[in-house]
Amino acid sequence: MTDLAERRGAETTVYQPAEDSGLLAEAALEEATGRVLEVGTGSGWVAKRVDEEAGEVDEVVASDVNPHACRQARERGVEVVRGDLLDPFRAGAFDAVLFNPPYLPTDPENEWDDWMETALSGGETGRELIEPFLDDVERVLAPEGIVLLLVSSLAGYEEIRGRAADAGFDDEVVREESFPFETLSILRLSRRSPSSSGDY
Ligand SMILES: C[S@@+](CC[C@H](N)C(=O)[O-])C[C@H]1O[C@@H](n2cnc3c(N)ncnc32)[C@H](O)[C@@H]1O
């Protein structure tokens, strides 16, 4: 279990850009095209970079469940919808969906009941937000759409790949960086091709 206090610093309302945000933005600048959704945008920093710098992106929409995050992202100039994961969005709407999820495995007794807990804690497994996201994200993708998902080794890399495979995706690591206590990867998910064996 990870102590949220070490990761949250003094911030109590909106997650500010960190190494994970940077990794997701770099991957998105290379991989994202067309209509892009960033789920859980926090400060809006990733969405804004993609909107301004990605060559083949037409439009960026973002979402967050935290009203303070929505306000901060909007002040940055990002188009934001407040809502839970993918619920606000219609089927087939996006060419790329980005998500840097809350992923720290957290003992319920150590959690804070505030918006930084919502930003950081992935529940006891670290996957409590990742799993419902993976189960629904295919619905909002256009036919050739992709997902860029930040995965930490703390949340169970193989378990996440397995869940993505169950949801019908092939995966590929497009960015990876190791830190003393975790390895962060960006998984690029695309609908499984008919010829793929589904091994993982
Ligand atoms: C690790 S932070 C990432 C913030 C930002 N995308 C970045 O990379 O800097 C996770 C974000 O997901 C948001 N979040 C948590 N649960 C959510 C949910 N059920 N639906 C939408 N957003 C959620 C949090 O409020 C937080 O802003």
From TrEMBL:
Q: Which Pfam families match?
A: Methyltransf_25
The domain of life for this entry's organism is Archaea
The similarity annotation says: Belongs to the eukaryotic/archaeal PrmC-related family.
Q: What name goes with this protein?
A: HemK2/MTQ2 family protein methyltransferase
Q: Which InterPro entries match?
A: DNA_methylase_N6_adenine_CS, Euk-Arch_PrmC-MTase, Methyltransf_25, PrmC-related, SAM-dependent_MTases_sf
Q: Does Signal show up as a keyword for this record? A: no
Q: What is its EC number?
A: 2.1.1.-
Q: Which terms are listed as keywords in the entry?
A: Methyltransferase, S-adenosyl-L-methionine, Transferase
- GO terms for biological process? methylation
**Domain Methyltransferase: where?**
36-100
Q: Which organism is it from?
A: Halopenitus salinus
**What are the recorded GO MF terms, alphabetically?**
methyltransferase activity
